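hi! just following up on the protien thing from before. the input was this:
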Amino acid sequence: MKKITKDMMIFQILDLNPELEGVFIAHGMNCVGCPGSNAETLEDAAEGHSIDLGKLLEDLNKANEL
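and the predicted 3d structure came back as:
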């Protein structure tokens, strides 16, 4: 599986594996389908939602391996 990085756009991550939407929601990012998801990197979105980027990346990559 492709590793998810902080520089990827949210829509790219969801295109890679749509089931990762649950990880975003678990981290409080309920707007993964909003227009911003097409223009924000994972790093930008995490910062904008005051989310721990390291933990989010860890959880996304772990879930993507399943």
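Helices lie at 10-16, 21-26, 42-48, 53-65.
The chain has a mean pLDDT of 92.
cheers
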